[in-house]
């Protein structure tokens, strides 16, 4: 009897399984370097069957990126019962922590790293758009400030990427100080944009 137990999954469950394997691998491996043979082997299927579910490596790559975008949004969602400023602090803190933990992946999400496909930009835009909507709703901002908040998220991402590039013991300020700075920047931009 083989140690590998093969089981028949629905098409949707198999896709989810394959994307889950891809997500677990991108913790240590740039997604564009994933071996499709290894992904198939871990799933207990042939490489050909993997390509039945994802016709190209780019399709698989984009499915993993989209799932990672959804994961970022889940991980940065504030508690609905919290007051607006607390929700924003929670979102910013969680986003900075996400970027710090997965900096290389986040750079791939933002800059594409070897995949010239407009769908990659759509995933990043969707993360930023949902995050923007959450801030506007949490603070009860005028919808006219949507573009300002959207641009502010780009600033938060840039600050987080810069901060996370330094070794933890060489960072010029704490996570809390970075978050507080971003909160002040948002307040200033909203006051200017009002």
Explain what this protein looks like in three dimensions:
The protein is mainly α and 194 residues long. The chain folds into two domains: 11-60, Orthogonal Bundle (Arc Repressor Mutant, subunit A), CATH 1.10.10.60; 68-193, Orthogonal Bundle (Tetracycline Repressor, domain 2), CATH 1.10.357. Helix content is 71%, strand content 0%. It has nine helices and no strands.
> Which regions contain 5 or more consecutive residues with pLDDT less than 50?
1-5
Care to count the β-strands?
0
Number of helices: 9
Sequence of secondary-structure elements? HHHHHHHHH
Query: Mean of residue pLDDT?
Result: 87
What is the element layout, followed by pairings?
Blueprint: H1 11-25, H2 36-43, H3 47-53, H4 57-75, H5 84-101, H6 103-111, H7 118-139, H8 146-165, H9 175-193
Helix pairs in contact: 1-2, 1-4, 4-7, 5-6, 5-7, 5-8, 5-9, 7-8, 8-9
